[in-house]
Write a structure and sequence with these properties.
Length: 708
């Protein structure tokens, strides 16, 4: 299988995206391997348990549980040690809708109680299947007629083993196809975005599967380190190539049984123990699964909110409980529990192809270690020869700092050379622009008196749409690195002008000037993330809702914990918040709680110039996250228990009903055709801010370039 792996990597690097067509072939082989898996789990568990007597089962399960807990403790200690290798990093990130979503809950009952075993088999619910098979196998232990059923199932198991061996014989074709397509299509962008996580999980995985786990087995059993590596090689390579542990469970079981025969330590009991414990080890949280906990720590670090030491016990307990479910349930749950934007999970999915190359082999080594240690413990053959055992205990302890130092050194270098978050938002541009004039103040000519009534005919006749904007209102209207006026509302203003077939002129204003400037006709329409509030309804006319935003608090990272809940905020003696909008709402809050004070600013930049004057800034979560990319030492929190949402829209003068009618109809069209959603995804969520580049390949970038 090793040759297929190496040949696949070479093919992918040479031909690049041309070998993407091999992916379905690899997927087909994975499904082929899965043909026997569920029947194999059912048969092996029932037969393995059914052949024991009651005293043996109790002893085996207790001793296996002891081994499992021991490996968890040792493995989690190593995982937490590697989280210390994350370098210092301040970062901001785009808004995440998951921040305001309901907390993820895990239905452990549905996961582990097989109310319908056949449905569990059909749905691939492995934990429920294992629980059912354990219950059925144990119920057969005292049954005097069990041999009739067990003999039949044993024959079925032998048949399944033959099928698995036949498939494994041709599986190198699948390994070649999957490896070639992965190596050929994995983008450099994916590697660049998560290179710190990749280094972290690679160093951790190599330490667990090459040092800690096999050396623990070598220290406590007669099995030599080199022999264990040799026994694991086929399952290891298959798991690495496919990123799938499930399909190699029969290979692990047969490998353990074959090696026990080779060293003359096998008997019927050890074979049954292997058959029972392999699927159990897969069902319960493995150290392979737990290595993905490092991604949660990485995501917290990436968003500038690293997990503190005081959080470690709670995170560890939550992780152990959640990993009893599927990894793809556990990670979003942990992200949510730590208030990390859950769309960080998309980063995990984008990297899952690579991380599975470490997580799956680590799981294989863990299952080998767990089962072998349990077998020798049950046989009372664990041994600790003074010199050899001391060597294999001391060596992992000595190598741990070396692996950690390697991880820290590499990640410090990568983090120092990575692109800053503000570089992304500061280089965003408006596409499909119309000719535009951006003014820094209201022209003197506009201030000579009230301008005429503005309607669609007037705008088209003058060939100019005048748009009011708020300066430095990220991400709705702001100047990028090239001093271009950009943002969510600015992009819509260009689109509106384009549909009117006119040019656009942008005129600045401050929030308190909105009513005056509109009704004096200084501009036709205001488009700058404007809150639609009751107090302004009698002064100007608002369009229909463009977006709905979530009110939040922006503050220094170390201060965010003070504002996690409304109850915590109410318990503080005195608080001083800055704000630019929301005056009616905040005045009511002050009336109900005189200890909370609010000061209105004319420009959001004023807050960042002197943040020490305030405890925080009341702002939308969407805008707060964008500002945190410019000022990564700040973070955003939505206090639990009462922070409302509010609508934003465009504003026109009270008399401009013709323009308002047109804008409302235009917005309805944009909502329907997806233009508003596209603008939201780009300016608020940050999707599509990096262009996809063609995948590098030897054929395109070396051979063809040299031939030119």
């Amino acid at each position: 299988m090793l040759w297929a792996l190496l040949l696949g990597v070479a093919t992918g690097l040479i031909f690049g995206e041309r070998v993407a067509f091999l992916q379905p072939i690899g997927t087909g082989f994975v499904k082929l391997m899965q043909i026997t898996i569920f029947p194999y789990i059912v048969v092996s568990l029932i037969v393995g348990l059914g052949k024991f007597n009651p005293e043996q089962v109790k002893s085996i399960l207790v001793k296996a549980a002891t081994v499992m807990v021991t490996l968890w403790v040792v493995g989690l200690a190593a995982i937490w040690c590697f989280t210390l290798t994350l370098p210092k990093h301040d970062a901001g990130t785009f808004f995440s809708p998951a921040l305001i979503s309901p907390a993820t809950s895990i239905d452990f009952v549905a996961q582990y109680i097989p109310d319908n075993p056949f449905a569990s088999l059909a749905e691939g619910n492995v934990p429920a299947i294992v629980i059912f098979c354990i219950a059925l196998g144990m119920s057969l232990i005292a049954n005097k007629r069990k041999s009739q059923v067990l003999d039949f199932l044993e024959v079925v198991g032998q048949g399944l083993t033959v099928i698995s061996k036949k498939i494994i014989a041709i599986f190198p074709i699948g390994i070649f196809a999957m490896t070639a397509s992965t190596a050929g299509t994995l983008s450099v962008e994916q590697l660049h975005n998560l290179q710190v996580y990749w280094v972290l999980v690679l160093c951790l995985g190599l330490y667990l599967m090459l040092v800690l786990l096999p050396m623990l087995v070598a220290a406590a059993t007669p099995i030599k380190y080199r022999d264990l590596i040799y026994v694991m090689r086929n399952a290891w390579i298959t798991a690495f190539s496919t990123g799938n542990v499930f399909i190699v469970l029969p290979v692990i079981t047969e490998g353990i049984k074959a090696h026990m025969r080779k060293i003359s330590r096998n008997d019927e009991q050890s074979d049954h123990i292997a058959e029972v414990l392999v699927p159990i080890a897969y069902t319960f949280p493995s150290l392979g699964k737990l290595t993905t906990l490092i991604f949660v720590m990485f995501a917290a670090w990436l968003t500038g909110n690293p997990v503190s030491f005081s959080d470690i016990p709670n995170v560890t307990l939550s992780a152990m409980l959640s990993y009893f479910a599927n990894v793809h349930i556990a990670i979003p749950f942990l992200l949510d529990s730590l208030r990390i934007p859950a769309d960080s999970y998309q980063l995990y999915l984008s990297m899952s192809v690579l991380s599975a190359k470490v997580v799956s082999p680590t799981t294989v080594v863990y299952i080998f270690a767990f089962v072998l240690l349990s077998i020798f413990y049950c046989r009372k053959q664990l041994h600790f020869k003074r010199l050899r055992s001391a060597y294999y205990v001391i060596l992992p302890c000595a190598l741990l700092p070396a692996f950690m130092a390697t991880s820290f050194t590499l990640n410090s270098h990568l983090a120092s050379g990575s692109k800053a978050a503000n570089d992304v938002i500061d280089n965003m541009v408006v596409s499909d622009q119309v000719p535009a004039h951006v003014l820094s103040h209201v022209p003197q000519a506009y201030q000579s008196g009230e301008l005429s009534l503005t309607n669609i005919d007037v705008i088209k006749k003058r060939n100019l749409l005048r748009v009011g904007y708020v300066v430095d209102n990220v991400p709705f209207s702001y100047f990028n690195q090239k001093d271009e006026l950009v943002g969510f509302d600015i992009s819509l203003a260009h689109k509106l002008a384009n549909d009117l077939n006119v040019e656009v002129e942008f005129i600045p204003f401050q929030k308190h000037q909105l009513n005056e400037y509109l009704n004096k006709g200084y501009f036709d329409i205001a488009m700058s993330g404007l809150e639609i509030n009751v107090a302004d309804l009698t002064k100007v006319r608002f369009s229909q809702k463009v977006l709905e935003l979530q009110l939040a608090i922006l503050a220094k990272d170390y201060e965010l914990s003070r504002f996690k809940t409304v109850e915590l905020i109410r318990g503080v003696d005195t608080l001083n918040f800055a704000h630019m909008e929301y005056a009616p709402l905040l005045n009511r809050v002050h009336e109900r709680n005189a200890r909370i004070h609010f000061k209105q600013l004319s420009n959001l930049q004023d807050y960042f110039k002197s943040p020490e004057q305030f405890d925080g800034l009341v702002i939308s979560a969407e805008a707060g996250f964008a500002w945190s990319m410019f000022y990564p030492e700040f973070g955003v929190v939505v206090p639990e228990g009462g922070m409302p949402k509010y609508p934003i829209g465009f504003a026109v003068a009270k008399r401009n009903l013709d323009l308002l009618s047109y804008v409302d109809a235009w917005l309805a069209i944009q909502q329907t055709n997806g233009s508003i959603e596209d603008a939201y995804n780009y300016w608020i969520l940050g999707l599509g801010t990096q262009q996809k580049e063609t995948r590098w390949s030897v054929l395109d970038d070396v051979i063809q370039q040299s031939s030119k």
